[in-house]
Amino acid sequence: MKASARAHTNIALIKYWGKADADLMLPANSSISMTLDKFYTDTTVEFVDGQTEDSFVLDGQKQDAAATAKVGKILDLVRQMSDLTAGARVSSQNHVPNAAGLASSASAFAALALAASRAAGLNLDAAALSRLARRGSGSASRSIAGGFVIWHRGHDDLSSFAEPLPVADNLDLRMVTVLIDKQQKKVSSRSGMAHMAATSPYFHAWTAACEAACPQMATALAAGDFAQIGALAERNALMMHATNMAANPPFMYFEPTTIATLQYAAELRAQGLPVYATMDAGPNVKLLCQATDADKLAALVSQRIGTQTEICAPGPAAHLLEED
Ligand code: DP6
């Protein structure tokens, strides 16, 4: 009745930004990501006979009803699948350094899906785990798998799940995270994408562009074509932010330092250092580069932008942890 799991965060190269079904958490388009080795969440779930309510402790702090209800959504799905009625004790530890300014909902819901299903005695395969994690947070569907991952948009619960993508042996990619702001996001992913989808005239063009970019990105990963991977990722991220700027009212995640970092990446590229940028629902920038350039790039960016950087390699799939 008890299990512990670890899942790593992921950063999208082709973004999920807009839902087709908010209830089932079906995305408007397929997306592709890289799972990161450095940042992860560990979660223990125990179903306790006789306990009626769920409880949730995150980083040693008891969480409020709203946070516990989000976790409860996944626990309810697991209870339905396993005919359990007991309440659960959930305890999570985020190993996403605060300073990294990276979202942790992807690793959190992927670890929860694996730990809760095993604690309930279920033995779900990777696709079923991905579907379950998706119900907590869309991007969590991709954190079940390691390395490079595609989340197939699908058209119903069964067809919308993520799986690993084959990549060329010689592809040795790194993601350098650039901390620009540690503050909580001003506009959450969930509300930002909903507002964009409801009001931006670019929404349909955006999802069509992502659908077209996914097979191109999959081909570039399989071929180990770093320049193409980087160019596709950077353009896709900027397109996502352009859709937000065209929403009504418009909104944006850029800070002055965000722009300075994007411009510096372009400058370094022009000087012959192959580097491409991506960003999510916040001002922090993630730079894609090849492993041989990562140390140099991180040092240059820290020096010029004056911020903290972390070098991430592709990380592993979600996995169970030994009981203490
Ligand atoms: C910009 O998965 O956090 O990081 O499904 O509403 O929980 P919900 O949103 P979430 O959105 C992630 C948005 C993104 C792009 C991406 O990860 O693909």
Task: Please provide a brief summary of the model.
The protein is α+β, with helices and mostly antiparallel strands and 324 residues long. The chain is 38% helix and 25% strand. The longest helix has 21 residues, at 203-223.
Structure description:
With 324 residues, the protein is of the alpha+beta class. It folds into two domains: 2-167, Ribosomal Protein S5, domain 2; 173-312, GHMP kinase, C-terminal domain (Alpha-Beta Plaits, 2-Layer Sandwich). 38% of the residues lie in helices and 25% in strands. It has helices at residues 65-82, 105-119, 126-136, 189-199, 203-223, 226-245, 256-270, 294-305, and strands spanning 2-14, 19-21, 26-27, 31-48, 55-58, 61-62, 87-95, 148-151, 162-164, 173-178, 276-279, 285-290, 309-312, 319-321. Helix 1 packs across helix 2 (105-119), helix 1 (65-82) packs antiparallel against helix 3 (126-136) and helix 2 crosses helix 3 (126-136). The chain is globular, with a radius of gyration of 19 Å. Residues 12, 15-17, 25, 31, 105, 137-139, 189-190, 280-281 line the site of ligand DP6.
